[in-house]
Batch of 2 targets.
Target 1
Amino acid sequence: MTDPAELDRFLAGVERRAYLQARFAVQDEAAALDVVQDAMIKLVTSYRERPAVEWPLLFQRILQNTIKDYYRRQKVKNAWQVALSTLGLGDRHDGDEESAEYDPPGDEEDDPAERLAQGQRLAIVEKCLQELPLRQRQAFLLRYWEGMDTAQTAEAMGCTEGSVKTHCSRAVAALGKALARYGIEL
Amino acid sequence: MAARARTAVAVLALWLALGGAAAAQGTDKPTWGALTPAERQVLAPLVHEWPQLSRDQRRHLIRAADHYYKMKPAAQARFQKRLHAWATMSPEQRRVARENYLKYKALPPKVQQSLRQKWAEQHRASHPTQPPPSQPKQ
Amino acid sequence: MKKLTSPADSLVRHLDALAQQIPARAANRLEHRRKQVVYHPEAAMRQHSSLSLGRRWLHQHRIMAGSLLLALLMGGLGAYHLNSDRQHTVGEVDAALLGGDLPPGAYTNPQFVQWLQEHAQQ
C-alpha cells in the first residue's frame, strides 16, 4: 500500500508547474485548477500502486491528455462565441474578475522598479507561451521545463520522437521571434 | 442575409435542444414494472412502499441499486436490511444523513474506527440485550 | 528534475519564477485539492464531478451573458445534465451509506453527529 504522504509530496512538487501548464492552455484559473485536480484524481485512483519512480511520467501523460481534452472543449465553446458575435448577440467579458493576476511579490528588499520590470517580463513570457500552438507548447514545456528527454516527452504526449523534435524546434523559433518583439532575448 | 439565416438556424437549434432536453428529462416516476429484474431483486424489500415513494426517491434508489452489484456480499446484506428504514426517513433526514456520512468517510480510518466503537458502546448501553452492530473492516 | 542546457535556459528561469508567483488564492486551492485527492479520493471525485460541471456551466453562462439564446440552450441542456449527474452521485452515496459500517440512523443521531463534529475539527 502506497504511503499517502509520499504521494502528497510528489504532487506538491509538481502541482505548481502543472497548474501553469494548464493555465497557459485554458487561460482560466478555475478551469486550470480543475484540469490539475482531474489529473491528480486519475493518478491517485489508477496508478497509486505503481512504483514512485514512474509517477512523474505517468502524471505528465495524464496531465497532457487532460489539457488536450479541456482545450478542445474550450475551442468548441469559443466557436459558439464567434458565431454569436457575428449575430451581434455575443458579449465577451474581458474584465473577468476570475482572471489570473500576479500576486505582488512579498516583502522583498529589492528595488520596486526592478520588481515591476520583472513582473512585466513574466507577463510577456506567459503571453508568448500562450500564443504557441498547443502541441508546440506541450513539447517545449515537457522537454525544457520538466526536463524530460525526447523519448519521455513522446510518451507523455502520445506521439513520435520525430514530432517532439519538430514541435520543440518550432516552439523555440516562434518563442524567440515573439519575445524579440518585446526586446527580450531567448 | 447570411446573418438572418444563421439566426434561423440558431432558433431552430434552441427549439430542438429545449424539446430534446425536456423529453429526455421526463416527468414520470419509474414504476415497479419499469425496473429491470436485477433492480427489482435488489429493491425487493420496498415492493410494497414503491407506489408511495417520490420520483426523486425512486431515481436515487435505482441508482443505488445499480451500485449494489459492485459491493461485497456483507455490504449487500446490510444494504437490503437497511432499505426499509432508509425509505421511511424524511427527505431532510436522508439529506442530513448523506452529508454526515460523507463527513464521516472523510475522516482518517483510525478516527472512523474509534467512532464506530463509540457508537457500538452507546448502542450496547441503550439496548443491553441486543448484540452490537457488525463492525466490518472496510 | 535536472534541466537541459539549451537556448531556452533563460525562459526556464522565467517559468520557475512564474511558478513561484502563482496567486496565493490559486496556490491555496491547489494545495487544498491535492490534500483532498490524496487523503479522501472518494470525496474529491464526488465533489469534482458535480462542482466542475456546475462551474463550467456557470462560466459559459457568464461569458454569454448577452446571449439569451445560448443561455437558454445551455440552461436547458445544462440543467438536464446537472440533474442526472446529481442523481447519479446521490445514488452512489446512498449505496455506500446503506452498505456501510453504520446504520443510516447513526448519521442523523445527535450524539453521533456531535462526535463527528468534534473529530472533524481536529
Note: Chain C has a mean pLDDT of 76.
Target 2
Amino acid sequence: MTVVIGQSGSGKSTLLGLIAGIDRPTRGEIVVGGTPIHSLDERRLSAWRGRSVGIVFQFFQLLPTLTAAENVMLPMDFCDTGPAAGRPERARALLAKLGVLDQADKLPGTLSGGQQQRVAIARALANDPTVLLADEPTGNLDSRTAGAIIDLFRSLAEEGQTVVMVTHDRGALRSASRAITLADGRVVADERPAHA
Amino acid sequence: MLSPRWRKVGRDLWLHQGRTALVVLAIAIGIVGAGSILDTWAFIRRVTREGYLATNPPSATIRISGVDQALLERIRAHPEIAAAEARRTVTAAIRVQGTWRTALLFAGEDLAASRIGLISAEGGEWPPRDGTLVVERSSVEFAGIAVGDAVTIQRNDGPAIAVPVVGIARDAGLAPGWMEHVVYGFVTPATLKSLGLSADLDRVLVTVRDRDASREAVRRVAFEIKAQAEAAGYRVDDVEVPEPGSHVHAAQIDSLLYTKGGFALLTLFLSGFLVVNLIAAMLTGQVREIGVMKALGASSSQVAGMYLGLALMLGLVASVVAIPTAAIIGRWYGQFIADLLNFDTAGFAIPRWTHVVQLGVGVLLPVAAAAVPVWRGSRMSVAAALHDVGIMPSAVGPGWLMRRAGGLSRPLLLSLRNAFRRRGRMVLTMLTLATGGAVFVGALNLRASIRDSVSILYGDVLRYDLSLRFAEPRAADSLEAAVASRSGVVRAEAWNGVRAAITQADGTLGNGFVITGHPPATSMVAYPLVAGRWLRADDHDALVVNTALMDDDPGVTLGGTVTLLIAGRPVRLTVVGVVRAMPQPAGFATRELVARLGGEQRVRTVAVALPAGSAASKAAATRHLRGELDEAGFSVASAQLLSEARLATEDHLLMVADFLLVMTVLMIAVGGLGLASTTSLAVLERTREIGVLRAIGARHRSILAIVQIEALLIGLLSWAVAIPLSMPMSVILARAFGRTMIPVPIRLFPGVPAIGGWLVVVVVASLAASAWPAWRATRVPTAAALGYE
C-alpha cells in the first residue's frame, strides 16, 4: 500500500490520473504492471483501465440511478468480465466483503457517506484490478468513518491487493508500506515506514 | 436480465420524466404531422387508382352521331380494341324542390350489363327502368335529392316530364357533381324519347387491349376508329383520350398533398431540432457520469451506444404513440377527400409501407439528432468529464447587454443576459419557433391572397350578376332586348358556345373544349390578358385561348394558327390572345364566329347585370325577373347567381389555407415545446443562482418574472425573425396554390392582422411555455439551491 501525500497543487491527483490513464503525459513514459500505457490509444486505454485499474474517488461518484449492487456490476458489464449470470453473485460477495451487503439493493442517495465509499471500493474491485487507485477517499468523510475506510484499504493490501492512495490524511501513513511525498510536482521523499 | 448499463439508461429516462415526456412528445408531433399526410396520400392514391381501375375506365370516348350495332361490331373487330359500348349523354334542365339545375343524363341500352366505366348501385333500384331516373351519388347532397322524389326534366323546348328518382348509383369516373354543379343521372333511351329526343346513341366508349398503352398510343387507335367510322359515312365530332389510369383530379390531389407533405416534413425537421436540443442538454447533465463510466473502463463506443440506445428507445415510444394516431388522422382525412372525389373507401386500408417508413423515421430521427452531441460527449476525455463544471463562464451575451442601458431594471437585465448565455441553444429554439411563425404568417397571407383573387375574379373579371339559360334558343338581339327591357336589369348580353377539338399535326384529335362567343366589346367579362389582345369587331377567324389550353397543348402559340374540328368539320383559326381564365382549357371568339362555326344563329344564354345590392335583393330580383320572362313566353331553364358561385368557390379554396393553418398549429406547438424545454433546462442549470437570488431577498414574483421575461424575449426575437422569413414562404405558398387551384396574386409583405396575430400567438406561447419552469424556479428552496452541485 503506497500513500502519496503533499499539499494542494503538489501534483498528487495528477500523478494518480497518469497512473489511471485518465491524464496523458506530455513527455516521458508510464509503465503500469508491465504495460506502457502512454503508448495506448484511447480505445485500448479504456479497455486496459477497465481490466487493470480500480478507481475510488473523493466524492464516491456512484451512478445515482443504479443500486449499490448494480454500480458494482457496471465495470464487469463494460469489460465483459466472467459470465453475465455470475455477476450479481460476485457483486454481492464484494459488498459482503466490504460490510455493506445489506445496502445492495438501495440507491446511492439513501446511503451514508461511509457506506457509499464502501460501495465505491467494491465497485473498484469488481474486475479484480492489478492496482486499486484512491483519490482522497476519506476527504469527504468524518474522522471515525475515515479511519474505518483506511483500515479497509490496509486489509485489502494485506490480502495482496496493490493500493495507491492520494491523501491529506496523515493517519493513512500508519497503514502504508511506502509513503511518497510530492511538492511542486516532484518527489521529495520516498519512505518505507518501519512497521512494514 | 437487463445489464446494469441498460438499467441505468432506463432509470435515467424515468428520473427525468418531464424531459423524457417532452422529447417523446416532440418526436410524436413530428411523426403525427408527417405521418398523417403520408398516410392520407398513400390511402387516396390507392383508393383512387385501384377504385378507378376497378371501374374499367374507357381508354377513349369517341363522339359519333347515330351509332348503330353495325358500327359497334366494326369497332369491336379492330385488333387493338378490347371492348366497345355505345352511350348517349344529354344536357337538360332538372327541377328539384323548385330549383332548376343543369343535369347531365347518361343513357345506354343496358347500363347494368355495361363492362366499361362500371357503375355500381348504391341504393334503391339499378338499372333505371323506362321513365325513371337513377341519380349519381356525388350530386345527391348538393341538389337535395332523395330516392322517392319526383323531379321534372326538360330538354330545351321539349316537353317537361315528371320522373321518379328510383335509385342512387356511383360512377367513380366522373368529376364529382357537387364540384361541377351538375346533377348526373342515368336513364334509358326510351326515357330520352319521352323528352322529345331521338333514342340514338352518340358516343362510343372503348377500351384497348394493351392496358399499359400510352396516351399517344390510345390516341392513335382512337383516330383509326374515327377514320373507319367516317369512311363508313358517320359523322365524328370529338375524340377524348384521358391520361390512362388516372382520375380526372389525380394531378390536382397529388400536388395538393405534396404541398402539405412539404410542411409536414418541415414539422418533422423542427421536431428534430427540438430533439437535438433536448438530447444535447441531457448529455450536458450526464458529463460527469460519462467520466465516471469511462474511468470504470467504458469505451467511447460503449458510452455512445448507451446514449444512442436511449435516443432509440425514445423514438420507439414516440412511434408507438404516433403511428396509430397518424393512421387515424390519415384515414379520416383520406376518407374525407375520397368522399369529395366520389370514391368508395370500403375495403381499402392504408398501405403497410407507410407505417414501416414512419417507424424507421421515428426511430432514426432521435438517433440522428443525438449523433453529434453523443459523439462529442463520448469522446470527451475522462479528466475533462470529471472536472466539468457546467456552464461556460465566457458566454454572457452581447456587449450592449453588458452595459446597463436605457434605465432597465436589474432583474430585467438579468433576464436579458440569461437569454444569451447558451447562445447555440437559444438560436435553435428561436429559429424553431420562428419557422412555425413564418408558415403561420404565410398561411394567413395566402388566405388574404385567395380572398383577393376571388374578389378579382368575381368583381373585376366577371362583371355580371346572373346567368340565365333559356329553354328555347332565339336570335341574340331579340333575347338581349327581351331581358334588357325588364325592370331591374342594368345590362344584358347574349352568349353562345360551341365544342371544338384541336387537330394535331399527325391528324389525331386533342381533347375537346368549349369556345364561348362574346360580343367583342363585351362589358360582362374582362379576363386578364397574358399576351396578345382581346377580340375585335373586325375579327374574322380570331381565337383567344386561356393559359390552361396552352399548357394542355404546347402546339398552340400566340400568332400561330390552329386547326380545330368543330361540328365534324376542320376549321383554321388564328390565336390572337392569351388570357388567364378558369382552370380547364377554354377558348373565346366573337359571337358571329361561334354562330358560323356551330351552324346555329340562335343563342340560349344571357348574362345579366343587376343593380348593386345585397345578395338577398339580387336573389329577389332574380325570382322576379324569371317570373316576368316566363310570363312573356321566354321560359328560363336555369338561373345562377354569381354571388352563390362565389361563396362556394371561396369556401373550397379557403379550406386549403385553413388546413395549412392547422399544420402551423403543430409547428408552433413544437416551437413552444422547444421554448419550454430550453427554459426548464435554464432553470435546472441555474438552480444555484436562483438560490443565491432568494438568499439575497428575491421574492416569488421577481423569480417568476426573471424566468418568464427570458422566455418572452426569445419569443419576441422569433416574432421578429419570422416576419422576413414569411416572405419566401408566402411566395412558395402562392406559387404552389396557383399550380393546383387558381392563380393568386403573391403578397410579399404580411398584413397588419397577420403580424399582430402572430405577436399574440408568440406572447401566449412564450408565457405558457415558461409558466411551469418559472413555477419550478420559485419552488427551489434556498438551502438546496446552494447545495446543488
Note: Chain B touches chain A through 27 residues (CB under 8 Å).
